Amino acid sequence: MSKTIHWMEQQTEEWFSLRAASIGGSKISKVSQAPSTSGYKTYLNQFISEMITGVKYRDPYTNRFMDMGVKREPGAAMYYSLKNPDVDIEFPGMVTMDEHRHVSPDFTIGLTDDGCERVGEIKSVIPTTHIATGRSMQVPTGYRRQCNWEMFICGADICDFISWCPEIKSRPMIVIPYSMDKKLIGEMRKAADKFIKAAYKGMDEFIQQSGISNAR
Description:
By secondary structure, this protein is of the alpha+beta class. The protein has one domain: Alpha-Beta Complex (Lambda Exonuclease, Chain A). It is built from seven helices and eight strands, in the order E-H-H-H-H-E-E-E-E-E-H-H-E-E-H. A hairpin with a 2-residue loop joins strand 3 and strand 4. Helix 3 packs across helix 7 and helix 6 packs across helix 7 (182-215). It is globular. 31% of the residues are buried. The model is unreliable at 212-216 (pLDDT under 50).
């Protein structure tokens, strides 16, 4: 599978531009929903708007937990690196498979045009969530699609899922090596293909309807 590695800083205008009308790890769960669900419909309309305008939609909603995660991620990556001095972690801005599929991993190890040793997904969480993850040592169900989408796009077989909570000083980081789920990846690939097809159909219908309306 071919891919393009974009070595850029995340959260920049260039980075947002590349994400327009492209399914990333944070949205693959919505794409995998039934087309009748509100989450699917909302994202489909957003995707169509990005196809037409070329501008990435930026959700104005945020909360303190989301802001906390963005601020704490660099510290988590540094801690991971210190605990694994024999590996060199990389910070690609984005990896694209094509115009409509991408991921922005928190970090990678051994990323090349031909494959990737592993990807890293960091979740900065509250103590209760951190403890629950540590006791189960399982990647939470809600993040499994995201991890697999990252492995699929980057060409990795392993994702280090990281729960990061500096408040738990005795064990601030939990690392769960998560192996690729080929069945789930197959399901997501089919869902993404259908979603993109529906987006093109929806865009064509919208433009045609707009033309008829303007003619009147």
